[in-house]
Amino acid sequence: MVPWGRGFDILGKRVYIMRERYEGTWRAEPGEAKTKTTRGNRGMSRKNRQFTQISLFSVLLGGHYDGIVSVGEAKRLGNLAIATMDRLDGEVQMIDGVVYQACADGKIYLPGDDETIPFGTIADFSAEAAVKLADIPSYEQFETRMDECCPRHDFPLAIRLSGRFARMKVRTVRRQEKDGVGLAEAAKDEAVFEFGDICGDLVGFRLPGYVGGINAPGWHLHFMDESRKHGGHVLNFSLLEGDLSFCHASDYHVRLPDSPDIFAGLDLNRDWSRELKKAEAER
Q: Which residue from 41, 57, 128, 158 lies 20 to 30 Å from 122 (Cα-Cα)?
């Protein structure tokens, strides 16, 4: 059993860092059974739900795109995920344990278990609660509605929204054959697709501010239509109606790259906020 590491306070919660091999863990101190119900939030179950992050976002922003975790291993870590593939080759969404790769040619592929992922977030997803949503005109309004449904921002949140959308705008980045082109620059050559009156699944995460530096705080969503023929990283959308399910993490693991070459020449103390804003732009 991995011993508790040093602790510190974040938003009134005692958080510990543990390390085993190349993994780090943030874990809330055990004890609280449930949170108090607040305006549509059904309360946060303390059931153990592990989220796993593959690599650091700063590595991706710095232009290093070699995969470090196989698709097969990602499936063993959870059943819901968003990610990218080796060499930044498209947008990945895992739904019900099935991995879909949306590429810049507009097609959806099913990557083999031996193919690899350089960056992503995976959830061992089991819903704490379900909420019906309707008439949400934009991504921004969705964020506001989610603050009402799930007001707690101190724990990572995973969601799945199955519904009908009046509009869905997604992007997929193009494969990068060489390292060195940062994500913000690579995204300038992205393929953008827009669909009207489409049904499908939104999956993704809302991450707390304290993940800044290792991931992107806030929302990150991917979409896959019900025919599994269209998808990608969500830029904007308008929801007509849908069923939302969500869960919070009790453990947040970070799988660090095991090759020192990935960190070579990368300034890990750099403020990547400007590059992050460019890479995640156009809401």
A: 41
